[in-house]
Model the fold of this input.
Amino acid sequence: MKTCACCKVEKEPSEFYREPRVLDGLTARCKQCTKENAGKSYGRRKKDVLERRKNQYDARKEKDRTLRTKYGITIEDWQRMFREQGECCAICKSKSPNHGSGQFVVDHDHEFGNIRGILCGKCNVMLGQANDDHGILFDAAMYLIKTFTPESIEERKARLRAALDATID
Done:
């Protein structure tokens, strides 16, 4: 048993944090008192702490760190890829990110981790909802072509063949 230097209550050793620099290996204050004191201290300094964190935050560094961690690329790699695809979504060609974050997103193969391109939020969600299954997406495209009314079936087939030929080349 040990008495807390703050609340003066005798408590079990498990109620204290470890402190290797002290003879008994435990902090002088119990965990509860330590937490309460920290909360009061933060409450007094909250405005200054938040202001310091805000001033230290660098969105570019944060994005670079996230890209490196999640995808193994740098922000320069991301920018190059985005430029090479015309600074728009690789699928729908939208110049708008269509994403809550206001950012275009990295599209990657979840099985192997390969980066496929930069997408707007809507196209990224579309691929996710289809589980990246090209069969489902192809069937969806066929459905849209089949149910498109202003053209004849032969015109629709010709348009589909042209689209498929363009993607194969």
